[in-house]
Amino acid sequence: MDVSKQLEIIKRGTVEIISETVLLEKLKKKQQLVIKAGFDPTAPDIHLGHTVLLRKLRHFQDLGHKVVFLIGDATALVGDPSGQTQARKVLSRDEVEANAKTYEKQVGKILRTDDKDLFERMHNSAWFAKFGFEHLVQLAQRYTVARLLERDDFQKRLKEGKPISFLELFYPLMQGYDSVILDADVEIGGTDQKFNMLVGRDLQEAYGKEPQVVITMPLLVGTDGVVKMSKSYGNYIGINESAGEIYGKVMSIPDSIMFSYYELLTDVPLDEIEGLKKGVEKGTAHPKDVKSRLASILAGTYHTKGEAAEAAENFRRVFKEKEIPEEIREYELSKDMLKDGKIWVIKLLLLAKFATTNSDGRRLIEGGGVKIDGTKITDANSEIGIKNGMILQAGKRNFVKLILKN
User: Is the pTM of this model over 0.85?
Assistant: First the structure.
């Protein structure tokens, strides 16, 4: 394929390429590039946030380039400080290995893992397990503490008087050394990985190798529409979840983020996505229909088309049986309104303006008119555990969709 066409495919959804000129030169010089992406197995299962990188790797595979799917079972023992306000919990070897096994099973849903010319799975413990003190000295002398402390995460913690462990300082060097070992032409990561990947460029040069091109991808916003998708935030969609769960969770996301999902998680052409966006803005396309198509695509990506169709039908039937209208007002709840993720049901009715006083709220509940996701609330003293996208109903015609914000 013509290199300009390759570049067009590669650039879809990217935030930054360092540098595009060098990438073009590499594409012109080499028939096959080595594309690296590392995944630290710090939690079990892969979610849609991970697939932003995996899909970009698949784009490179489709263009004939070789992907190295690097499982960071050594780096996971250290813990990536990127985006962290304090040191990560250090995982045990058993925890890391158990999580790594789930990654290996799931990655084949996206990458062409059966073609050895286009895919190689590696663990960085393969070289770090043999890493003696002499190697550590050689690596450490190729980078300065001053450079490491330039990263924003560390600067912030220094100003706040929060500790930074030696392990955290060593992490970027470990990730960079991976690129040295693999002779990576390109490394792909989220925007939070930019510093680590640039260290990889520096180390490759320090070891007399050609520096890799760095491609940063956006961090997918989770189902809450606020922070990045993460299991720790509870706002994730796992690719191993059922078609029904995937479909339902996608339907719960705020309309404001669904077009980024289209761009980063599907192969729908960009001009078609722009057309859908303009249709919603002009009122010629209903947001629910556009989101339903997205939900069907994603459910069908990780399950069969039949299972995705069944999930869509089940979702429509449940909403119809519960007599939930298609258009529902949204109400944002900040986390400081909740206590341990819960809120008193009467306070919730007051915030949603379904009741004007506590007594008014009690009467609604005692009359059987208050429901959460179709389940009747009978205890006026109960506290409700709030999840993003929940539907609060008061009476036959009053509905509000609860949106969690940070």
Answer: no
